[in-house]
């Protein structure tokens, strides 16, 4: 469920020259909600909202729910107030992924194997190799939309262009259930009628930074030279990308074998908490889940990130990149705890409304300075063990039981033993005490 702005002026006929426009971006419309309506046809035409529970947030909503102001990440409690007649359903990721898998395998893959799946409900296709069997990209896009609807009763929107950036922006502005071809000669004109947030990757923070320099639209951005853009955003890499984007250009190629970028786990507390023991316990559980997933996928991680969402629904993330990659909870959890402490240390010094624990936690000096709603851990910088050089440390060469401590090698072996037990008796059958 995207909150990216769309322009009515963009949804028009931009021309019919398809030469060089071999990139398709396909985006399912309100995918989670559409999947639920597909298996419950009696819900068609109703405001379907995916998310239940007073502590949850909205994951998706049908188009019938959006006129009520429902959007993703909104607290379900607020969504119920805005749309009391809505049908609220729990998230069923197993079902949504199974439908997605069939759409990609049975529909997209029948056209070409040049597919980059970005998420469960969107992906890119390079159809240049399929032109011997099809009259043009528009015919392929129309066929895909028809097949997805007839087989799965889900609608999708298709953008057709010469690069990934414009194809994605085209599918966004074709929604819902539409298709938009942007000829190569019209790429610059198309992107330059957009607001800044119309370019994927420009969020509120970057938008504010640009607006401070008087840049309020893509057309404003397009008038700057590349060095000026670099100076405004403070990064030559980001500046180069934005300089090209403002002219409808994109150097990225399709990645048909995208390795998983991160593995994470997060949980929402039943009640907001300022108890550090409860937050640490949840971080330990998440660390264990992440480590287990890393080993299941035969991956090592070099960067650990902690995410905390607070009572007002704002959130903070903090990451640390390690010298050597890891895949065990016994190493991930201490990093997560350290990152959590750093977050709250910064909060104490920067939050003028909470100068100390005593002011915001009823006098409990050990309580956290801000109430936590959700906590999570993720691992990124992933690599395969056989492709990852690891420099041994002194600790690796020491006996396991020096000073009575269990060595890292034996801890790693213990966690792999837990994997075997969980595979036989269930993932909640045993937990690691850290």
Automatic annotation (TrEMBL):
Subcellular location field: Cytoplasm
Keywords, comma-separated and alphabetical: Cytoplasm, DNA damage, DNA repair, DNA replication, DNA-binding, DNA-directed DNA polymerase, Magnesium, Metal-binding, Mutator protein, Nucleotidyltransferase, Transferase
CDD domains named in the record: PolY_Pol_IV_kappa
Domain of life assignment: Bacteria
UniProt GO BP: DNA repair; DNA-templated DNA replication; error-prone translesion synthesis
Pfam family, one: IMS_C
GO molecular function: damaged DNA binding; DNA-directed DNA polymerase activity; magnesium ion binding
Known catalytic reactions: DNA(n) + a 2'-deoxyribonucleoside 5'-triphosphate = DNA(n+1) + diphosphate
SUPFAM superfamilies named among the record's database cross-references: DNA/RNA polymerases, Lesion bypass DNA polymerase (Y-family), little finger domain
Enzyme Commission no: 2.7.7.7
Residue span, UmuC domain: 23-203
Signal sequence annotation: none
Entry's family note: Belongs to the DNA polymerase type-Y family.
Subunit structure of this chain's protein: Monomer.
HAMAP family: DNApol_IV
Function of the molecule: Poorly processive, error-prone DNA polymerase involved in untargeted mutagenesis. Copies undamaged DNA at stalled replication forks, which arise in vivo from mismatched or misaligned primer ends. These misaligned primers can be extended by PolIV. Exhibits no 3'-5' exonuclease (proofreading) activity. May be involved in translesional synthesis, in conjunction with the beta clamp from PolIII.
Listed name of the protein: DNA polymerase IV
Species of provenance: Bifidobacterium psychraerophilum
Upper lineage: Bacteria, Bacillati, Actinomycetota, Actinomycetes, Bifidobacteriales
